[in-house]
Write a structure and sequence with these properties.
three-stranded antiparallel sheet; mainly alpha; Amino acid/polyamine transporter I
C-alpha cells in the first residue's frame, strides 16, 4: 500500500558520489535522470547573484538600445520600458520557480528539456546559446562605440570610427575573458565593483539632469507619440509604436536569465535566487524609466531618429546639454563600466550553459572540461569569446540588438510555457506564466511584422536580420538533433 502510494507522488532521490551528483526525478511512469557533476563550487552570495543579473541587464538597456528605441518610438519609449518591465516581472516569476526546482548551471536549457524533452530542449539550448553570443556582441560593440567616440570626438570618418570601435571591443573581450578564466569568486568580486560604479554614475546622472528634464519636458516630450520627423501621431498608432519599441529593446531585460545559470554556485539558493531575480527586474526598470525621462526630457529625440551613428551613444549626447563635455565623458565612462559588466555576466552565464549542454551530450564533450586550478569551464569561455568577436566585427549595432531581442523574446515565451507545463512540480501559479507566454509571443510576432515592414521600405540592414534569425533557428535545430543522435549511437556502441 505504501509502495503504491509512493509511486504516484513525485520523489527525489539524491545520491552523492565523490566525482559527481546524480538526481533522479520520478513521477508515475515517467522518469528523468539529471546528471550534475558537482565540480562547480558555491561561492556566490546574494550581492554577487544580483550583480550578475544587473550586470547583464543595465548595460544592454540604457547604453546599448536607448537611442535606437527612442529614434523609433520617440518619447513613448518611456512606455516601451514600462511594458518591458511588466513583462519581465511575469517572466521573472517563471524563472524563480523553475530555478528553485531545477538547480542547474544549464538554466533555461534545463527547464526546457524537463518540459519538452531532450530533442526540443537541445534545439532550445542551441538557440539560447546563440542569443548569448548576440548579447555578448551587443555589449562589446557598445563598449567599443562609446570609447571610440570619446577618443576620436566629432568629425571622425565612419570608417575610422568602425576600426577603432572594433579594436577597443576586441580589447574588452580579451580582458573580460581573462577575468572569467581566473575563477568564480574573482568574477563575482569584479561584478560587484563594476555594477556599483555604473549604478552610482546613473543615479548621479538622474539627480543632476532631472530638474532640466522637467523644465524642458513640455518642449522635448512633445509630441509624446511622434514619428521620426517630430510630427504627432494618434494615440493608437503611438502606443503601437511603443509596443514595437519594447520588442526592440527587450534584450535590456535578459540579465535576469543569467542568474539561474549560476544556481549551482549560489549560496542559500532558496532565498537568494528569487530575491536576486526579482531585484534585478525591479531595480533595472526603475533606473530605465528615470534615465529615459531625464535623457529625452533634456534632448529632442529626433536627433537619434535621424542619425543612426548618434543613436549608438545616445545617453552621452543627452548629458552634454546639461553637464557640457564633462557630462559626455562621465556618461561615456559609465557606459564603459556598464557594457563591460554586461559582457562579463553574459560570458559567465553562456559558458555555464555550454558546460551543462556538453555534460548532457548536446555539445561536444570537450566543452565540459573544467580547469583543475580555477574550477571554471575554460574551453567554453574561450570559444564563446572567439565567436563573439566575429559577431562584433561582422554586424552593426542595430542588427545585433534586433537579433538579440528577437531571440530572447522567443526564448522567454518558451520558458513561460515550460513553467505552465511544469507548474505542479514547481508549485507555480497558472495566470502569471500564461500572461508571460502570451505577451512574449505577441511581441515576437510584432517584432517580425516590423522587420518585414522595414525590408519593404528598404531600411538598411533589415534584410540581413530577417534572413539571419530563421537561418539560425534551422541550423541550431538540425545541429542539436544530429549531436543527440551521435551521442546516443556512441552510448549504444560503448
Amino acid at each position: 500500500m505504501t509502495d503504491s502510494k509512493d509511486a504516484n507522488i513525485e520523489t527525489l532521490e539524491l545520491s552523492r558520489q565523490k566525482d559527481g551528483q546524480v538526481s533522479t526525478f520520478s513521477h508515475g511512469s515517467i522518469e528523468t535522470s539529471i546528471v550534475s557533476k558537482r565540480e562547480l563550487s558555491r561561492e556566490l552570495g546574494f550581492k554577487e547573484a544580483l550583480s550578475i543579473g544587473l550586470g547583464g541587464t543595465i548595460g544592454g538597456g540604457v547604453f546599448s538600445v536607448l537611442g535606437i528605441a527612442a529614434g523609433f518610438a520617440g518619447p513613448a519609449v518611456i512606455l516601451s520600458f514600462t511594458f518591458g518591465g511588466v513583462l519581465a516581472i511575469f517572466i521573472a516569476y517563471s524563472y524563480s520557480k523553475l530555478a528553485l526546482r531545477y538547480q542547474s548551471a544549464g538554466g533555461s536549457y534545463t527547464y526546457c528539456r524537463e518540459a519538452f524533452g531532450k530533442y526540443f530542449g537541445g534545439a532550445f539550448g542551441w538557440l539560447l546559446w546563440t542569443g548569448y553570443l548576440a548579447s555578448c556582441a551587443l555589449y562589446a560593440y557598445t563598449f567599443g562605440s562609446f570609447f571610440a567616440h570619446m577618443v576620436l570626438g566629432e568629425g571622425a570618418s565612419a570608417t575610422t570610427v568602425k576600426i577603432v570601435t572594433s579594436v577597443l571591443a576586441a580589447v574588452m573581450i580579451i580582458l573580460s575573458t581573462a577575468i572569467n578564466l581566473v575563477g568564480v569568486k574573482e568574477t563575482g568580486k569584479s561584478q560587484n565593483i563594476i555594477v556599483l560604479i555604473k549604478v552610482v554614475i546613473l543615479v548621479l546622472f538622474i539627480v543632476i539632469t532631472i530638474y532640466p528634464a522637467i523644465k524642458n519636458a513640455p518642449t522635448n516630450l512633445k509630441p509624446f507619440f511622434g514619428d521620426t520627423e517630430g510630427n504627432g501621431l494618434d494615440v493608437g498608432t503611438g502606443i503601437a509604436m511603443a509596443i514595437v519599441g519594447t520588442s526592440i529593446l527587450f534584450v535590456a531585460f535578459e540579465g535576469m536569465e543569467l542568474i539561474p545559470n549560476a544556481s549551482e554556485e549560489i549560496q542559500n539558493p532558496e532565498k537568494n535566487i528569487p530575491r536576486s531575480i526579482f531585484g534585478t527586474v525591479i531595480i533595472a526598470t526603475i533606473l530605465y524609466l528615470l534615465v529615459a525621462f531625464t535623457a529625452l526630457g533634456g534632448t529632442k529625440y529626433t536627433i537619434f531618429a535621424n542619425d543612426p551613428d548618434k543613436a549608438e551613444y545616445a545617453l552621452a549626447i543627452a548629458a552634454e546639454p546639461v553637464l557640457g563635455k564633462t557630462g559626455f565623458i562621465i556618461i561615456t565612462l559609465g557606459a564603459l563600466f556598464s557594457t563591460a559588466s554586461a559582457f562579463n555576466a553574459s560570458l559567465y552565464g553562456s559558458s555555464r550553459l555550454t558546460y551543462v549542454m556538453a555534460r548532457e551530450g548536446i555539445f561536444p564533450n570537450f566543452f565540459q572540461i573544467v580547469s583543475k586550478k580555477s574550477r571554471v569551464p575554460f574551453i567554453s569561455i574561450l570559444t564563446i569569446s572567439g565567436i563573439t568577436l566575429v559577431f562584433t566585427l561582422v554586424l552593426d549595432l542595430k542588427q545585433i540588438a534586433h537579433l538579440a531581442s528577437s531571440i530572447f523574446l522567443l526564448l522567454f515565451a518558451v520558458i513561460a510555457l515550460a513553467s505552465l507545463i511544469l507548474r505542479k512540480e514547481i508549485k507555480a501559479n497558472f495566470i502569471l506564466p500564461l500572461l508571460g507566454f502570451l505577451i512574449s509571443l505577441t511581441l515576437f510576432g510584432i517584432f517580425f511584422w516590423n522587420l518585414i515592414t522595414d525590408v519593404k521600405l528598404g531600411v538598411e540592414g533589415s534584410l540581413t536580420t530577417l534572413i539571419l534569425l530563421p537561418v539560425l533557428i534551422v541550423v541550431m535545430t538540425i545541429g542539436s538533433i544530429i549531436t543527440i543522435k551521435l551521442q546516443e549511437k556512441k552510448k549504444v556502441e560503448s
